[in-house]
Amino acid sequence: MSAVDEAGRVIYGCMGLGGEWNAETYGAAEIEHAEAVVQAALDSGITAFDHADIYGRGKAEAVFGEVLARSPGLRERITVQTKCGIRLAANGRAGHYDLRGASIGARVRESLERLRVDAVDVLLLHRPDPLADPRDVAAALSALHAEGRVRAVGVSNMSAAQITALQAELDLPVVADQLEMSLHSRAWVEQGVLVNTPAAADVGFSDGTLEHCRAHGITLQAWGALARGRYTGRQETPEEHATARLVAGLADRKGTTPETIVLWWLRRHPAGIVPVIGTARPDRVRACRDAATRDPALTHEEWYGLWLAARGRPLP
Ligand SMILES: NC(=O)c1ccc[n+]([C@@H]2O[C@H](COP(=O)([O-])OP(=O)(O)OC[C@H]3O[C@@H](n4cnc5c(N)ncnc54)[C@H](OP(=O)(O)O)[C@@H]3O)[C@@H](O)[C@H]2O)c1
Q: Does the structural domain 3-235+272-293 have CATH classification 3.20.20.100?
């Protein structure tokens, strides 16, 4: 099975589960909410779930573990992915990154305990740590794999060069790179067309990362895939309003939801991008059903129309 098949067509991102990040604990309400969201995902053909040790300061994994404990057989029907490498400061913001081998091992053991699982299907390194030694990172990942705690490994917010440096030391294939990619965060697609223009300097997407992932069978997972609602009800700027109108019209004509159009825009790209959706509302999860179950029905021209509307200025 390829990394894309393992991940599914859409992944549910669990960052919104477990209640407030500043609360110490969770209760029945947070567990029931997580149960409703997981059920909405399953009903919508979504069977892959994305976590990180820091989501809700561990509470997202913990409530998910409660849901698994209450639903015998569920673990075998789903894919569970988590991340490590960000350490939060007291104010809840990223304090430092930590990809020391010993830290990776400790964080994964804590995540498995919270999730109440023996292994995660995929472990992502959340962000690059400038102090990390790729050899130390690779040894920790290989040990976790050999122990059966981690079935596959990937990265997040990393460039082609960073993946190459890690892969050179690692005896397991890097299967995924999770990056911010959406109709709003378009640097991943702008980078490919602004090649020899001055605007290329401002793009902010590492040149060649998309192509590297495609060439090496590394699944591109798109975080922030719903553009945080900018084209499906939460639009503010003139470009967002114009794009939202286009999205609504396309949804009407194709008999689907605006959320699906926004996600189809990512899925229509030939790189096999897998959107990670983070809405914590079961009804909005259900609005993504067609994105997970149908092939993207956008023509070449419709895809460009959406890009241009969101871009708000002509192509070079
Ligand atoms: N690797 C990384 O560094 C990284 C970083 C960030 C996130 N992630 C992962 O990616 C997942 C998705 O990212 P995300 O949650 O930032 O992005 P997203 O899926 O684009 O947006 C979800 C957020 O937008 C809101 N939203 C969506 N549609 C809306 C609408 N029509 N009106 C008002 N609000 C709307 C949601 O609120 P409601 O909950 O009220 O619907 C939620 O707060 C996360 O859950 C996490 O798993 C990874």
A: yes
232-287 tens-digit pLDDT: 999 999 999 999 999 999 999 999 999 999 999 999 999 999 999 999 999 999 99
Q: Which atom of ligand 1 is nearest to the CA of 225?
A: 20
Asked if 277 and 226 touch (Cβ cutoff 8 Å), the reply is yes
Asked if 231 is an active-site residue, the reply is: no
Q: Find the 122 Cα to ligand 1 centroid distance in Å.
A: 20
29: tokens are: 């309400």
Instruction: Say whether pLDDT at 146 is over 90.
Output: yes
Which residues are within 8 A (CB) of 261 and not within 5 positions of it... i.e. 6 or more apart?
Answer: 231, 247, 250, 251, 254, 298, 306
Looking at residue 204, its pLDDT comes to: 84
For ligand 1, mutation pick of 15, 247, 285 (most atoms within 8 Å of CB): 15
Q: Is the dihedral of CA 3, 186, 224, 88 positive or negative?
A: positive
C-alpha R_g of the chain = 19
Looking at the whole model, is its pTM more than 0.90? yes
Mean pLDDT (whole number) for 142-164: 98
Nearest to 129 by CA among 171, 96, 175, 166: 96
Nearest-atom index, ligand 1, CA of 232: 31
Q: Which pLDDT belongs to residue 23? A: 77
